[in-house]
Design goal:
52% of the residues lie in helices and 14% in strands. It is an alpha+beta fold. Strands 2-3-7-6 form a four-stranded antiparallel beta sheet, with no helix packed on it. A three-stranded mixed beta sheet has the order 1-4-5, with helices on one face. Strand 2 and strand 3 form a beta hairpin. The longest helix has 37 residues. The protein is globular, with a radius of gyration of 21 Å.
């Protein structure tokens, strides 16, 4: 591996996205949230500049890059205070799955829109009674002639209200064994039987969360993504980018909070010197910076392995990156609020809302405990407790 962690092109991409993020910033995002709207202007401009589809194949309108480039985009937008959470879902999960496993018709239909931002796709996997146990997914698909009938429920599906379609994880019966196996289906938004209900969240974010009810949703044969027998492989092809991008989301948010705290600590003076001169303030901020940098290193490793086609190695690194970024993000936000004291809880400084938002990086898309289970079993070879 090169001693240069990022290429000149990567550094230029960081600078360009950072400049875009700075033009919008936290005030723009909090305004969008307050209005109950969506960050359409930022999404549209990022798309026009080629940032949203930077990971998708060039022949379908993308930038021909990978997760390394897409994670840079989300991290830098987050560091400017204006992250686009739907980047985790639409180009990273759905775009990657369709690009790697979709039919030629599916690629031609969906990828150009996902690349230029004109099409948004949501992702439905979590169920009310399954939680982190994807083996308990009960959303099932059964054949009806040449078509499929999809039935089940999903929860915590981001952005269904603005998504043109949702990539839904269901299960089909294996004709040979009779066992259920995962399969992925593209469900357009207006498909009959496809219902959505908003979930009332304490989390303040432009992306709303929904519960989906699929009541015998009739889908054509071409709604099935890829090979019916490769469902598990296809699913994890989407989940590894999801973890890498969640790490980018957490690192960006942590960097934004830390930047606000450092700026405050440099200028806030209570006694003779700025408060940042005191080690009780300086050392925790330095620790937060170190933890964010370490998390970024693991994210870069995960992205590199994934882009190189090492799905197994990327799986371990992506889980570790997501874990490290979640922990670093929560610590950075907590320390930033603490550094500002009472000001950290005011609307003026805009940090208090991040206390809740930072927990997303710990909880979703997989909890820190499930990642520790993964590392225990897969990396260390310890026996399972379940």
């Amino acid at each position: 591996m090169s001693t240069v962690l990022e290429t000149e092109e990567h550094r230029a991409l960081r600078d360009a996205v950072a400049a875009l993020g700075k033009r919008y910033g936290r005030d723009y995002m909090t305004g969008v949230i307050r209005e109950g709207s969506h960050p359409r202007e930022l999404w549209s401009e990022a798309a026009k500049l080629g940032y949203l589809g930077v990971n998708l194949p060039e022949e379908y309108g993308g930038g021909g890059g990978g997760m390394a480039e897409l994670s840079i985009v989300l991290e830098e937008l987050g560091a400017a205070g204006s992250p686009l959470l739907m980047m985790v879902v639409s180009p990273a999960i759905c775009g990657t799955v369709i690009a790697r496993f979709g039919t030629e018709d599916q690629k031609r239909r969906w990828l150009p829109g996902l690349a230029d931002g004109g099409v948004t796709m949501a992702f439905g996997i979590t169920e009310p009674d399954a939680g982190s146990n994807s083996h308990r997914i009960t959303t099932t698909a059964r054949r009806d002639g040449e078509e499929w009938l999809l039935t089940g429920r999903k929860v915590f599906v981001s952005g269904v209200d603005i998504a043109d379609a949702t990539l839904v994880v269901g299960r089909t019966e294996d004709a040979r064994t009779g066992k259920l196996k995962p399969c992925l289906f593209i469900v357009p938004r207006e498909t009959p039987g496809f219902g959505r209900t908003p979930i009332d969240m304490e989390l303040h974010a432009p992306e709303k969360q929904f519960e989906l009810v699929l009541d015998d949703v009739r889908l054509p044969a071409e709604a099935l993504v890829g090979d019916e027998d490769a469902g598990l492989l296809q699913l994890f092809a989407g989940l590894n980018p999801e973890r890498i991008m969640t790490a980018a989301f957490g690192i960006g948010m942590g960097r934004y909070a830390l930047g606000k705290a450092v700026e405050y600590a440099r200028t806030r003076q209570v006694w003779k010197t700025p408060i940042g001169a005191h080690q009780a303030i300086a050392h925790p901020l330095a620790t937060a910076h170190i933890d964010l940098e370490l998390a970024r290193l693991m994210m870069q490793k995960a992205a590199r392995l994934y882009d190189d086609g090492d799905d197994v190695g990327a799986g371990e690194a992506a889980n570790m990156a997501k874990y490290a970024a979640g922990e670093a993000c929560v610590s950075a936000v907590d320390q930033a609020v603490h550094t500002l004291g009472g000001n950290g809880l005011t609307r003026e400084y805009g940090l208090a809302s991040l206390v809740t938002a930072a927990r997303v990086a710990r909880i979703a898309p997989v909890s820190r405990e499930m990642i520790l289970n993964y590392v225990s079993h897969q990396s260390l070879g310890l026996p399972k407790s379940y």
